Amino acid sequence: MAEQEQQDEAKPKSKKKLIIIIVLALLLLGGGGGAAYYFLFASKPPAEETAAEPAKPVKVRALYVKIRMPGDKPSFVVSLTDSNGRQRFMQLFVEAKTRDQTIVDALNLHMPLICDRLNFIFSSADFTELQTNEGKLALQQKALEAVKEIITKETGKSDVEAILFTNLVMQ
Question: ∠ CA(51), CA(55), CA(56), 5° rounding?
Fold first, then answer.
C-alpha cells in the first residue's frame, strides 16, 4: 500500500513536469516565431526608407508685414469718383505675405516707396469695378505686381507671395 501511495504521488509530479515542459516549449516556439516574423516581415529601418525616398521640402512659416503709411498709420484712405461723378472714399488695410526674413526687412526698409506706389494704384482705381470681387482681385494683383517690382529692384528677389486686403471699406 505504501508503494501505491508513492505511485499516486509520483503521477501528479510527472503531470506537473509535463505541463511545465509543454508551456516552455510553447513559449520557445512563440518567441522563435515572433523573432522570425520581425526579421522577415518587419518594415525596413528608417535610414533605408529615407535614402530611397526623395527629401520632402520643409514648409517655412508665413511672415506677414503690415504695409503702413508714414506716421505708422495702419490704413490707406483714397478718394475715388464713381460713374455719376460723385466723390467716394475707400479705406484699405494692407499686408504683404512672404516666407523670407530678408524680404520682411526689405519691405520695412522701403515702406515709403511701397506706400507711394500703392497710393497711386489705389487712387486710380475705378469705384464701380471695385464693387465686384473681380475688381477687388484685380486691384490686389496690381498691388502685388507693384510691390514685387520694388522688392525685386531693391533686393534681387521677388519672394512676396501675396498682398492681402485685411480690411476694405468703400462709401
Answer: 145
- 100 is written with which cell numbers? 523670407
Query: pTM score, two decimals?
Result: 0.63
Mean pLDDT of 143-166: 92
Residue 4 pLDDT greater than 70, yes or no: no
Backbone angles phi, psi at 166, to 5 degrees: -80, -15
Class of domain 63-170: alpha beta
Cell of 1: 500500500
Place of cell 511672415: 63
Residue count (the chain): 171
Please state, in angstroms and rounded to a whole number, the distance separating the CA atoms of residues 10 and 97: 87
**Which of 4-13, 79-88, 150-159, 162-171 is predicted least confidently?**
4-13
- In terms of Cβ atoms closer than 10 Å to its own Cβ (0-12, 13-18, 19+), residue 139 is buried
Measured CA distances, 159 to 79, 98, 115 (Å): 31, 6, 18
